[in-house]
Amino acid sequence: MVGTLHRLHLKPEFKYSLKDLSNLVTSLHPDLICGEVVPAHLKTPKRGFFPPEQRLVEYLAREIGAQYIPSDWRASPADYNRSRNQINPETQRKFDEDQQNLIRETIAAPNPFVYLHSSETQIAIRKLHDDYIAAGTESADGFWITRNTQIVELCHAAIEKHQAKRVLVVFGVDHKYAIEAGLKQKSQNYVIQPIPSPSHSPLNEVPESVLNQWNVDRDDLRELANSTATSTERQEIEQSGRIKELGFFIDSQNMRKQK
Predict the structure, then answer these.
(1) Is pLDDT of 171 > 80?
(2) Does 186 reside within a domain?
(3) Strand, coil or helix: what is 168?
(4) How far apart are the C-alpha atoms of 81 and 76, rounded to whole Å?
(5) 26-40, pLDDT tens digit by residue?
(6) Can you tell me the distance from the alpha carbon of 218 to that of 155, in angstroms, rounded to the nearest whole number?
(7) Cβ distance 170 to 33 under 8 Å?
(8) CA-based angle 141:151:8, to the nearest 5?
């Protein structure tokens, strides 16, 4: 499994650029890639609600002849919004503080990619989520346990259906420990290979078609938020910050062109 950083790919201090992600995906030669997109939203206006780097991963899958399978799961907007109200402010503050500490430790590490993918850091990430769930509810943590369980089920089904031999799972790095453990439980035939650290390149350049998709995704989300979405869907879009995040990814390409 390759963990991603969402908007933090654009931050040079993390030394894990979109170019690094591209080189890593293509060098591993997978015949199937499971990505962080809900299957039902793959070809809908809500496609942009998912991490922008997944557009790049989907493009790379086509380029190397791999199947790209959307393998994420999310609770309904109404259920998620209700669950957010179940957590007390002090628990939320502690969770946010712990996340910021992890970010600072990652930046300080000699190789942030290796640090985040290490078993020691994954244990720390699991504890962070376990403590949050214990202090609040599993649903308040974005239905974290249920979501990871469903991700494993979708990945496993895709592997079996396509009889894939070399599979790459590309999700936010927080999911790594749960997805790998879940897949190991699904089949003794699954061998989890360690991911090599990519040679770092500071470049965040992506193909024009990926940039165009980001623009479409942002426009679609804006339209949903301003007109056709229900009130809970609008709240979901606003709380996700995805429109703003897509703007960061788009601006990274526009700044490159200006240079």
Answers:
(1) yes
(2) yes
(3) strand
(4) 9
(5) 999 999 999 999 999
(6) 27
(7) yes
(8) 60
